[in-house]
Amino acid sequence: MWLLTGIIILGSASTLASPPAGRIHVEIANFHNSVGQVGCALFSSAEGFPMDLSHAMRQSTGAIRDKRASCEFDDVAPGTYAIAVLHDENSDGKIATNFIGIPTEGVGASNDAKPSSFSGPKFSDASFQFKGGLLNLQIRVEYY
Question: Among residues 2, 53, 56, 132, which is most buried (max CB within 10 A)?
């Protein structure tokens, strides 16, 4: 009887545990040159997406080689996320824009979500479900 009770308790505890955190690996392509660096930001909500990096859950930078780059986000809990990407050609850590706010450096988003009229892509268009483990994503940088 004791053994059976212990198995039931342990079995119940294991089904209540949270799914394990994982890694999101992002391959980025379509850079028009290999100057500067790539910046990636992981957002867990629409707040600030894609331009306000102060609302990003995590940020990552990487070198661009042969017009390709990658970013990693480790120890990410399962959930809904979206990723914004910037080709930071002048390596100043900011999104350069023209006088009406259109980026003058390359930008991209998960699901290759496109900007809406006079604003960046919507979180709902760029969002994806992450269930833990390893997720490999591909994003193309666009220049406007």
Answer: 56
Q: pTM for this one? A: 0.85
For the chain, residues with pLDDT lower than 50 are: 1-14
Encoded tokens for 120: 């960046």
All domains in the chain, ordered by first residue: 20-140 (2.60.40)
Rounded Cα–Cα distance for residues 5 and 120 (Å): 55
> Mind listing the pLDDT tens digit for each residue in 69-82?
999 999 999 999 99
Convert the pLDDT of each residue in 5-25 to its tens digit. 344 444 444 455 666 899 999
